[in-house]
Amino acid sequence: MPTRVWPRRLRTAFYWFLAAEFALGAVTKFWPGPTFTGPAYSVKFADWGYPSWFRFVVGAIELVCAVLLVVPGRRPRFLAATTLVLLLTGAVTTHIVNHDELYQSVAAPTHLVIMAAIGLANWPADWRDLLRRSPRIPSTTGGSL
């Protein structure tokens, strides 16, 4: 098997793993009772100062983004990553404002950094051109205007 196939397969497996994480997170938002992560999200969202129905909005966004992460192509993955960056920025802010315990707060900033990297890697334009120096183009007017 060619060696160039493995990076693509690892990247695909990583996208599927992240999609499974966000899909599981979405399911826990829709779950009516306590979850394996603690009390019900309706209680958590109320404790954080959000209406309890807001968990359905967050869960739906996570579920749609989980699907978009596994759709082949850069644009769906970019859309999923940037949407999740916005969502996770709100999650990190919520954890900071509410002084949540570290074990409850570590997942959101970790996934925020991962999604930011995925967003940059799947940028529709070649974002690496921003980092390269462009060669000087010689003037056709001989230096005078």
TrEMBL record:
<dbReference type="InterPro" id="IPR032808">
    <property type="entry name" value="DoxX"/>
</dbReference>
<protein>
    <recommendedName>
        <fullName>DoxX family protein</fullName>
    </recommendedName>
</protein>
<feature type="transmembrane region" description="Helical">
    <location>
        <begin position="103"/>
        <end position="123"/>
    </location>
</feature>
<feature type="transmembrane region" description="Helical">
    <location>
        <begin position="78"/>
        <end position="97"/>
    </location>
</feature>
<feature type="transmembrane region" description="Helical">
    <location>
        <begin position="52"/>
        <end position="71"/>
    </location>
</feature>
<dbReference type="GO" id="GO:0016020">
    <property type="term" value="C:membrane"/>
</dbReference>
<dbReference type="Pfam" id="PF13564">
    <property type="entry name" value="DoxX_2"/>
</dbReference>
<keyword id="KW-0472">Membrane</keyword>
<keyword id="KW-0812">Transmembrane</keyword>
<feature type="transmembrane region" description="Helical">
    <location>
        <begin position="12"/>
        <end position="32"/>
    </location>
</feature>
<keyword id="KW-1133">Transmembrane helix</keyword>
